[in-house]
Design brief:
Layout: E1 16-19, E2 34-38, H1 44-52, E3 59-63, H2 65-68, H3 77-84, E4 88-91, H4 97-106, E5 110-114, H5 122-125, E6 131-136, H6 148-154, E7 159-166, E8 176-183, H7 190-213, H8 246-256, E9 263-267, E10 270-284, E11 293-297, E12 306-310, E13 315-325, E14 330-332, H9 333-337
Parallel strand pairs: 2-3, 2-5, 3-4, 5-6
Antiparallel strand pairs: 1-4, 6-7, 7-8, 9-10, 10-13, 11-12, 12-13, 13-14
Helix pairs in contact: 1-7, 6-8
């Protein structure tokens, strides 16, 4: 298998070595060879912490630029590995034959898999002599499945957490190594919660690495539950249902805001993504239809300006603060409140 030099255009083909570590930079472990697989930014603080503590990372694997461009919150692993002189490989599919051959050739003992959306199949998992360690942003065994942070906010949860575990053949069912819990406030978004997840990833991995180097294999089996697996979310699932209560619409917007594709709706034939909104819980407009624009909110504070929209049964409303049209136009502040939208109704295309 050959590794081509890095090119800015990217490629959807097999694994390639982007860079080779500088000689004499990273000390090697006496007995454990660590590897890293990641794409999402949630894994970056943990990798930075390991390098800062001079823990040896034999190789880093990430998605190639073509694939990474299609992922929300993809980290710039190329720059990170240049900064720390880590060998980097880019792949399109971690489970294809070329990627498996790459991992086998690296002869890794333990691989950390953080911020990686592709489910690792048994043949891929078997390439690490002692196993692969991943994280799931919930307190397992509860809320297994896809997009746990987004679902936590959509559901209005107030308590959540993160789990470090050994990866197994079944999704999110491996032995639990460590867990961290944290609250969810009414002001959190998917971005602030992922910051919390990233911080807990760092703390849990820094705690477990000395035990792994000492030959320990910490972990406890998960309790089996009958809970359904959280379903996968796609960009098209972000359509706003204005018939829901204002609090539910507010939760939906903050669950899907940047770095994710966002919650969206249409007005006057244009599709708008709602990046920022505020909840007005006590506002009553019993005669208004759901999704009807009640009028502008004006303020000397530019960030407080917006458009008020009725939700559900007319109890509570949503204040739109920042919108972006599909053509790139952004409305916020006074430009948003100056729109002549009163009486118009958000809806379908």
């Amino acid at each position: 298998m050959s590794h081509r030099p890095h090119s800015s255009s990217g490629s959807a083909r097999g694994p390639r070595r982007v860079r080779r570590a500088a000689r004499g930079v990273a000390p090697r472990s006496a007995g454990v060879r660590f590897g890293w697989i990641g794409c999402h930014a949630e894994g970056v603080p943990a990798l930075e912490a390991l390098v800062a503590q001079r823990m040896p990372i034999e190789a880093v694997v990430t998605l190639n630029p073509v694939k990474a461009a299609k992922r929300s919150a993809a980290a710039d692993y190329a720059s990170l590995c240049r900064r720390f002189n880590l060998p980097l490989y880019e792949v399109a599919d971690i489970n294809d034959s070329e990627s498996i051959a790459l991992l086998k050739g690296l002869s890794l003992d333990i691989v950390f898999v953080l911020g990686w959306s592709q489910i690792l199949r048994p043949a891929t998992l078997a390439t690490a002599r002692l196993g692969m360690i991943g994280a799931h942003a919930s307190l397992l065994p509860h809320n297994r499945g896809s997009a746990p942070i987004n679902w936590a906010l959509i559901r209005g949860e107030t308590h959540w957490g993160n789990t470090l575990m050994w990866l197994g053949e079944d999704v999110d069912t491996g032995e639990v190594i460590d867990q961290t819990s944290f609250p969810i406030s009414r002001y959190d978004t998917c971005a602030t919660l992922y910051d919390r997840v990233a911080s807990s990833n760092r703390e849990m991995i820094v705690r477990v690495v000395p035990r792994l180097l000492a030959g320990d294999r910490p972990g406890r089996p998960q309790v089996r539950t009958d809970e359904p697996v959280l379903p996968r979310r796609r960009p098209g699932d972000g359509k706003i249902d204005w018939t829901q209560a204002a609090g539910a619409v507010y939760n939906f917007v903050r669950a899907l805001t940047q770095p994710y594709p966002g919650a969206f709706s249409w007005l006057d034939g244009r599709r708008w993504t709602v990046w920022q909104a505020a909840l007005v819980p006590d506002h009553r407009s019993p005669s208004a239809r759901p999704a009807e624009v009640l009028g502008p909110v004006l303020s000397p504070v530019d960030a407080a300006c917006g458009q008020l929209v009725a939700c559900g049964t007319g109890e509570g409303a949503l204040l739109l603060l920042e919108l972006q049209a599909d053509d790139g136009e952004v409305l916020k502040g006074r430009r948003l409140s100056d729109q002549q939208w009163t009486g118009k109704v958000w809806g379908d295309a």
